[in-house]
Design a protein that fits this description.
Oligomer: heterodimer
Shape of chain A: globular
Number of helices of chain A: 9
Largest sheet of chain A: 6 strands, mixed
Radius of gyration of chain A: 18 Å
Number of strands of chain B: 2
Number of helices of chain B: 15
CATH topology of chain B: ABC transporter involved in vitamin B12 uptake, BtuC
Strand content of chain A: 25-35%
Strand order of the largest sheet of chain B: 1-2
Largest interface: A-B, 34 and 26 residues
Strand content of chain B: under 5%
Helix content of chain A: 25-40%
């Protein structure tokens, strides 16, 4: 039984087709990597799934329920939560307050939400920055904050948009471990990423996108062998 | 059922636990400020009382404005609309039906909140933000001014006089001229307004509103209903500002279209908050404490200028010019306002 079904999903901006007829079934607890060159439609796909963009046509079914055209807040509330490639912290707030905003989605009480947020912050390794103003965090910290806020919503599906971009390899390793742990805890992950080592280490299946189309889908090792993929992603001279 | 008396200490402990440290600190400071200010008229000369009262009215308006524009991030340039609705609701209910100003105040606050929510809803639905939102609110305030000027039942341009009573009356909110109640009542109203601010800022809806102000897209992606949590601070803001309007009517025993809906009324709500610090609890109060006395000094100066500045006698608009200069100085040197800048330096 698929947790998330994308049925003929398309999105155009005027004449530009950003997403053309994507058909995908994602199983519960799957870790799906999504790669493709810039402009392939990866972020558009996440935005459509998260309810920020309305698809031009097609259907999204989550856990048996048609959620096509739902508002972003409603989609997030049922457990489909995204992070942003360009981090969007609430800058007037501390790290703890930022995450508590997400915890408040299900928890009404202020101290309980803060306790919950503090646990999540410890989990992503931001404990020492708990009371720092979020705007003062370095990139690696902001990436973790994006992740912490999403996790505080206790999502069933996590839509990750390049959580590793802009990090040096030593900063990546602990986040990769964290992502593996989150997945093992039963969260389904859609993982848009350019860092191939991480994609290959984590993904159970790999989707390759190119110009809004599904180019290939399958076991990562097989997909990588695909010549067309190599051409599209790494350039024809590769 | 537990008797209230028995449960009280427990409930107080529970309340303490529920309040974040920041809120507790603010409430303590508020209590202290109110006590100190309550004794103020006993030490300052009687002639300063009207200035102090005007300052309190400024402060209530600015606290109100700050809820929507500071914490909610929706810059209103038309708070005269909400002040005026409060003022006219009270004046009309009292003169037409003999309704107590206390009730008029509450009805006016409710009506004003409704009007504000409707205006903000329309602006937000059609995606007006920033300066466009400010201009739209300004347009609505001007519309109220024009409508009032043409409404027979509101006495058109003549305004409404509140009939003077032969003796003091609590229920009709009227006291002898120079009575200290005219100071203590707005002081209590200000205390309530600040308490509302503190409670809101640290509440779940208040946190949501601030998240939306910082980044609506991120807030929405975390499951927050953006429109709902934008309209809550709007409603509170308009209600608080309307209370200032109702009290203003009672104090001056008069309200006219210009006193209610004039452009200067909107700026009276904005300037103290900007000078003191937008989006802070104490900024509007500190700003009002600067602007209130300053406006009195300027007015006195124009009434009785020194010989070498004789030509300024009776000039109108000098106060506006001085506000403008002050605003420019603040924006350049203390961009977060007096209190906001101090707080920021201390954090670093």
């Amino acid at each position: 039984m698929s947790l998330l079904v994308l049925d003929g999903l398309s999105k155009s901006f005027g004449g530009l087709v950003a997403l053309g007829n994507v058909n995908l079934e994602i199983a519960d607890r799957e870790y799906l990597g999504i790669i493709g060159p810039n402009g392939a439609g990866k972020t558009t796909l996440l935005s459509v799934l998260a309810g920020q963009l309305r698809p031009t046509s097609g259907k999204i079914v989550f856990d048996g329920q048609d959620i096509t055209g739902w508002s972003a807040d409603r989609v997030a509330s049922v457990g489909l939560v995204r992070t942003f490639q360009l981090m969007r912290p609430f800058e007037s707030m501390t790290v703890l307050e930022n995450v508590a905003i997400a915890s408040h989605n299900k928890i009404r009480s202020i101290p309980k939400a803060r306790d919950h947020a503090a646990d999540v912050i410890d989990r992503v390794g931001l404990g020492t920055y708990k009371d720092a103003m979020s705007g003062t965090l370095p990139t690696a910290g902001l990436k973790r904050l994006e992740l912490a806020r999403a996790l505080a919503l206790e999502p069933r599906v996590l839509l990750l948009d390049e959580v590793l971009a802009g990090l040096v390899p030593t900063e990546r390793a602990p986040i990769i471990d964290l992502l593996r742990e989150i997945h093992q805890d039963g969260v389904t992950v859609l993982f848009v990423e350019h860092i191939m080592a991480a994609v290959l280490a984590l993904s159970e299946r790999l989707l390759v996108m190119h110009e809004g189309q599904q180019l290939a889908l399958g076991v990562p090792a097989d997909v990588i062998q695909d010549v067309a993929v190599v051409d599209a992603y790494l350039g024809e001279d590769y | 059922m537990t008797a209230l008396g028995v449960a009280a200490p427990e409930r107080l402990a529970d309340l303490k636990r529920r309040l974040p440290t920041g809120a507790r600190l603010h409430f303590s400071v508020l209590a202290l400020v109110l006590v100190v200010m309550a004794f103020l008229p006993l030490v300052v000369p009687e002639s300063a009382l009207p200035v102090a009262i005007r300052t309190l009215v400024f402060a209530i308006m600015a606290v109100g404005w700050n809820l929507m524009s500071g914490y909610g991030g929706m810059f209103s340039f038309g708070h005269a609309a909400f002040f005026g609705v409060g003022a006219y609701t009270n004046a009309y209910l009292l003169t037409a039906f003999g309704v107590s100003p206390w009730i008029g105040m509450i009805v006016g606050a409710g009506l004003s909140a409704g009007v504000g929510v409707l205006i903000a809803y329309l602006c937000l639905k059609y995606k007006l933000a920033g300066s466009y939102f400010a201009l739209a609110t300004f347009a609505f305030a001007q519309m109220f001014l024009l409508v009032t000027l043409n409404m027979e039942f509101l006495n058109k341009s003549e305004g409404i006089n509140i009939p003077l009573l032969p003796e003091e009356s609590w229920s009709m909110l009227q006291f002898d001229q120079g009575s200290l109640y005219y100071y203590w009542i707005p002081l209590v109203l200000l205390g309530v307004a600040v308490a509302v601010s503190i409670s809101f800022v640290y509440s779940r809806p208040g946190q949501f509103a601030q998240a939306i102000r910082d980044d609506p897209t991120a807030a929405e992606s975390l499951g927050i209903k953006v429109m709902k949590y934008r309209l809550i601070p709007v409603a509170l803001s308009c209600a608080v500002t309307a209370v200032a309007g109702a009290f203003y009517t009672q104090y001056y025993l008069f309200i006219g279209p210009d006193q209610a809906f004039g452009l200067h009324v909107s700026t009276d709500a904005i300037i103290p908050a900007v000078i003191g610090g937008i989006g802070t609890i104490w900024g509007p109060l500190i700003g009002a404490a600067v602007i209130g006395p300053l406006s009195a000094v300027v007015a006195g100066f124009l009434r009785d200028p020194p010989p070498f500045l004789e030509f300024l006698y009776g000039t109108s608009g000098l106060d506006i010019a001085i506000y403008a200069i002050l605003l420019i100085l603040i924006v350049v040197f203390l961009p977060k306002g007096i209190y906001g800048t101090i707080r920021e330096r201390r954090r670093k």
